[in-house]
Design a protein that fits this description.
This protein is α/β, with parallel strands linked by helices. 33% of the residues lie in helices and 31% in strands. The strands form four sheets. The chain has a five-stranded parallel beta sheet with strand order 2-1-3-4-5, sandwiched between helices. A five-stranded antiparallel beta sheet has the order 10-9-8-12-11. The longest helix has 14 residues. The mean pLDDT is 87.
Amino acid sequence: MKAIIIDDEIAAIENLQIMLSKYCKNINIVAATQSADEGVFLINKENPDLIFLDIEMPHTNGFDLLKKFPNPTFSVIFTTAYNQYAIQAIKFSALDYLLKPIDVDELIIAVSKVEKKSKVDDKRMNLLLKNIDAKTTKRLALPKDGGYSIIKVETIIRCEASDNYTTFYIKDKKPILVSRTLKEFENMLPKDNFFRVHQSHLINIDKVEEYYKTDGAYVLMEDGSTVSISRRKKEGFEKLFF
């Protein structure tokens, strides 16, 4: 696979090149640059299968670069040392990212995922670009049947954990089971709208219709389901309303 590295730190480029040459021998680095603007030129010139893209760069950041390719023919693995909001946008769009300093095992996994895809899905890329321009992420991409269900965050009623799986209960839709932990989605979904009321339950507080303090405390949700509130979470939940 032809790849390009775009990162404003030369040390980061050199480190990634070494790691790829040693652990991902199927990746052929055809170019590397510290400039996002030059990165645009190199992508057009080399037509890569994959780009490793830093987010925070001077003048033009990684997201601005991607906006120049509304229909990308390449896959993207983001590399970043910070910018929590950017990471949230990437997660919502189901795209891959690596936190610096890059872990070898995570690099191998990310490259392996890319090998199974021919290119970045247009819907996911458009979703990413919309999310990074918005103050609050509006949609979530949930893996389903070899593709993705694009869900409006406001329609999520609640999420329920089962080991390393999470079931999404969505207004006017069938539940969707996703092989990711509830903790991951707790970190991704807007804190102003979603509250972890129990080890196994994350609810959309806008979908709460009734609250009962008896029988250990529980809520009645918009879809008619009831969700228990743990003793440890009860006080924090009540502060949201009272």
